[in-house]
Amino acid sequence: MFGLYKLILAIYRAYADLLSPHTNNLKYAPPQFKYIVSILIASLWAVAFSLYIGELYYLGYNVIGHVAIVSMAFFTWYVLNKNTYAKLRDEYDLLRDPNRQPKCYELTEEERLEKAKQI
Predict the structure, then answer these.
(1) 3-class DSSP assignment, residue 88
(2) Residue 19 has pLDDT above 80, yes or no
(3) Domain boundaries defined on the chain
(4) Can you give the pTM of this predicted structure?
């Protein structure tokens, strides 16, 4: 029983090392390359299972499905990692005081010229 536990633990550790973005071989690759490699690996697995099962009629559907799933995973990663709120916060600095409080008054001529020089 202890041998089975060690086998399951070894498989889990190998699985975690392979799929962890911090330890696998693609950790320094740019996201575009990771995307292409993921699609290539998913397509090759679809081909391998189609050849093994003998259902080559559905190979195209499997490859297209894998491309769609990998694409949506990378798109979701991109959207969640993109910091859109910081841009919106810094975009309207002309309308805020240095302590980030909103200005509720019209700018004087001197303030307008100073802001025009900053832009």
Answers:
(1) helix
(2) no
(3) 83-119
(4) 0.47
